[in-house]
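Support request from a user on the community tier.

User writes: "When I paste my structure tokens into the form, the page sometimes reloads and wipes my input. The last time it worked, I copied everything first. Here is what I submitted, just in case something in the input itself triggers the reload:"
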């Protein structure tokens, strides 16, 4: 009976370790995904601001009819 209790304890402990490792891995993956999305968002905003600046420069030089809004 003592052997069964010991084996059960180790199985439960192993399951806990596996669950914890999976949780940590999932959390890290979610953090990396969020970081990647933030970088992409910043790049998109930066590109939009560059396009808007080019548009404003075009408007100043040629008027609104000659320029395409980004």
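"...and here is what came back when it finally went through:"
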């Amino acid at each position: 009976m003592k052997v069964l209790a010991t084996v059960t304890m180790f199985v439960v402990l192993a399951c806990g370790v596996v669950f914890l490792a999976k949780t940590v891995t999932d959390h890290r993956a979610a953090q990396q995904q969020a970081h990647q999305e933030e970088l992409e968002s910043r790049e998109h905003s930066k590109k939009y601001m560059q396009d808007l600046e080019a548009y404003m420069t075009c408007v100043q030089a040629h008027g609104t009819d000659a320029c395409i809004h980004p």
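Agent notes: The reload is a front-end session timeout and is unrelated to the input. The chain has a mean pLDDT of 92. The chain is about 85% helix and 0% strand. Escalated to web team.
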